[in-house]
Design a protein that fits this description.
- The chain contains 7 helices and 2 strands, in the order E-E-H-H-H-H-H-H-H.
- The chain has 2 domains: 114 residues, no CATH class; 60 residues, no CATH class.
C-alpha cells in the first residue's frame, strides 16, 4: 500500500476493514457498512448466544439507522446534524461495552478502532456507505486473471496491475483506452518520451 500511495490521498478513502489500508494517509475515511452487515449475518449463522444476539441486534439497528438517514435529503442542515450526533454517540457507547462472547468482543474492538469512520458518509454528500464502486472497478481485472489461469510470475502480475489501472483510469475519464494507448506509443516512438496520462 505504501508503495502504491506515494503521497497523501486528498479525499475520503472508502475501504473494508483490512488493516493494510490503515497505512494510507487520507483526508478522511469511510468503512464499508455492507461488509460489516454481512459479517453480522455470518456470525448469526454459527453463534446463538444471547450476548451475541443482543449485541448484533443493536449494531445492525445502528447501521441501518445511519443508512436510512442518508435517504432523507429533505432535512435542513442543522436538523440533519442533530440526527448524526446521536448515531456517533451510539457507536461510542457500543464500542465501550465489555463482552464475554468472543464475536461481540472482536467487533467491539473494531468499533473502538474504526468507530469514527462508520458514519463519515453522512458528512459528505458525494461519499457512499460502501466500497461497491471500487470493487466494481477491479472486477474486470479479477475475471481476466481467473480466465487466464492466474498470472505466471510476479512480474506478470505487476504488469497486469499497471495496465488494468491505466485502462480503467482512461475509461473513467471518458477516453477510449485502446486509442489513447496507441497514440501514446506513437508519441513514444517519435519522441522517445511517453506523454502524461490525459486528464
Amino acid at each position: 500500500m505504501q508503495k502504491f500511495f506515494t503521497e497523501a490521498f486528498d479525499g475520503v478513502l472508502i475501504t473494508d476493514f483490512w488493516a493494510a489500508y490503515d497505512s494510507v494517509e487520507a483526508a478522511d475515511r469511510q468503512k464499508c457498512l455492507p461488509h460489516l452487515l454481512r459479517e453480522l449475518e455470518k456470525v448469526d449463522q454459527r453463534n446463538e448466544s444471547g450476548e451475541w444476539r443482543a449485541f448484533g441486534k443493536k449494531l445492525r439497528r445502528l447501521l441501518r439507522d445511519g443508512i436510512r438517514l442518508r435517504k432523507r435529503p429533505d432535512f435542513a442542515p442543522k436538523r440533519y446534524q442533530r440526527r448524526i450526533d446521536p448515531l456517533n454517540r451510539r457507536v461510542g457507547e457500543l464500542a465501550g461495552e465489555e463482552h464475554v462472547d468472543g464475536d461481540a468482543r472482536r467487533l467491539t474492538k473494531r468499533l473502538r478502532r474504526y468507530g469514527e469512520y462508520i458514519f463519515t458518509f453522512l458528512d459528505y454528500p458525494f461519499v457512499a456507505a460502501d466500497n461497491n464502486f471500487g470493487e466494481r472497478q477491479i472486477r474486470p481485472a479479477v475475471i481476466l486473471r481467473k480466465n487466464s489461469q492466474s498470472n505466471r510470475s510476479d512480474r506478470g502480475a505487476a504488469t497486469q496491475a499497471v495496465l488494468m489501472s491505466v485502462y480503467r483510469t482512461l475509461k473513467l475519464r471518458g477516453l477510449n483506452p485502446t486509442e489513447t494507448l496507441a497514440d501514446a506509443l506513437r508519441t513514444h516512438v517519435m519522441t522517445g518520451r511517453l506523454p502524461a496520462l490525459p486528464a
